[in-house]
Design goal:
- The termini are far apart.
- Strands 4, 5, 6, 7, 8, 9, 10 and 11 form an 8-stranded antiparallel sheet that branches. This protein has a two-stranded antiparallel sheet with strand order 1-3.
- It has helices at residues 8-21, 27-41, 94-103, 111-126, 186-198, and strands at 46-48, 56-57, 59-61, 65-66, 76-80, 85-93, 128-132, 136-140, 143-153, 161-169, 173-182, 201-202.
- The chain is an alpha+beta fold and 206 residues long.
- Helix 3 packs across helix 4 (111-126).
- Strand 8 (136-140) and strand 9 (143-153) form a beta hairpin.
- The longest helix is centred in the middle third of the chain and has 16 residues, at 111-126.
């Protein structure tokens, strides 16, 4: 996995500047300047996805690029290989899913509960889960949703991976979002993942 440190040039430039004027700057000013620079370097700018064939949209970091290599069945796919950040999203029609889910006799009061249970089983076939948070029920764009956050390993990848998976139900569709990064980068990614997930919304009809 490649690791890149951003802002090296800026830090070096700031170091030269501070050296030349250190005699007139207090240690408090120096600390404040470093804190402000670090904040600027960590600022993430977001852009709206724009896929005409989809009835939904969301925001993603502007450093992510569109791809088709993550999952052939997902019409929305973005990634940044350097930062090891990835996201996919898709949907299914309730009318297609409901008969199959009911035939499996899953526990759960709602179709969404059963859909989450089914997908969790599918995920566990490919991911060896090491840690899983309780399923979190939430509302996204006025729709019922459930968040499944878990860490695990997959064959062929030496490092652990942290996943954020969301299932959303509208009147006639079930939406699926999965975003992930290396487990070692989980803390830095959490805010980005949260922002993307909660920004999900249906497009307004023309």
């Amino acid at each position: 996995m490649k690791k890149t440190v951003y802002g090296v040039t800026l830090f070096l430039g700031l170091g030269l500047l501070m050296t030349s004027c250190f005699s007139s700057s207090s240690s408090d000013d120096l600390k404040k300047s470093l804190e402000e620079l670090k904040k600027d370097l960590n600022t993430v700018n977001y852009v709206e996805t724009d896929i005409d064939s989809l009835d939904f949209s969301m925001v993603i970091p502007d450093y992510m690029v569109s791809t088709t290599t993550l999952d052939a069945d997902r019409p929305l796919q973005y990634m940044n290989a350097v930062k090891e950040q990835y996201i996919v999203a898709s949907y299914e029609l309730v009318s297609d899913v409901e008969p199959s889910i009911k035939a499996l006799n899953y526990d759960g009061k709602t179709l969404l509960d059963q859909y989450v249970t089914y997908n969790k089983e599918v995920i566990e076939e490919g991911v060896k889960i090491s840690k899983q948070d309780p399923i979190k029920k939430m509302t996204i764009d006025g729709m019922q949703a459930q968040l499944l956050q878990f860490d695990g390993t997959v064959e062929g990848i030496s490092e652990g991976i942290s996943y954020y998976t969301v299932f959303i139900q509208s009147k006639d569709k079930l939406y699926f979002i999965m975003t992930w990064t290396l487990e070692s980068r989980k803390d830095d990614f959490k805010e980005v993942a949260d922002k993307m997930i909660k920004s999900f919304h249906l497009k307004k009809s023309a």
